[in-house]
Specification:
single chain; alpha/beta; 7-stranded mixed β-sheet; 7 strands; about 40% strand
Length: about 150
């Protein structure tokens, strides 16, 4: 199931490169490669605001918390399919309009329609990853075979 389908503008930009590298690391299930993309003081908000993954809505701050987010949220799925439909890169940021299909387990999938904003520093490291999506909408797509 793991794949990245990019149907968006793909002009070279540091934040877009970081976004693509982030997705590739997730699809390949390479935790350390993914963590190496972030600056030491980076923040991951996925989703932005309070959620079951971040009840206080403050984001996962620093590499240790981001690593725990990987262990709890990303590593628990069986696979990921990214479909990037549009991408807007300017300044230190890139905003991608995407659909992510998550293989929750061997039988169930969930679809997340989202806008993910990546911000990078002068070295191209991610300082902020902000995924805008609605958990209730995503959970409503959870499928299980009958």
């Amino acid at each position: 199931m793991s794949e990245i389908r990019w149907e968006a503008p793909d002009g070279d930009h540091p934040a877009r490169r970081a976004a693509r590298s982030s997705m590739a690391a997730v699809v390949a299930r390479r935790r350390e490669e993914w963590l190496a993309l972030f600056s030491p003081d980076a923040v991951v908000e996925d989703p932005v605001g309070p959620s079951m993954l971040d009840p206080r809505g403050r984001g996962h701050r620093g590499l240790a918390e981001i690593g725990r987010f990987w262990d709890r949220a990303i590593a628990s799925a069986q696979g990921y399919r990214f479909h990037v439909k549009d991408s807007f890169a300017n300044g230190p940021c890139c905003a991608n309009v995407a659909t992510i299909t998550i293989a929750v387990d061997r039988e169930a999938t969930m679809t997340v329609d989202c806008v993910i904003v990546y911000t990078v520093d002068e070295h191209g490291r991610i300082t902020s990853l902000r995924a805008h999506w609605e958990p209730d909408r995503a959970l409503a797509t959870l499928t299980r075979p009958v």
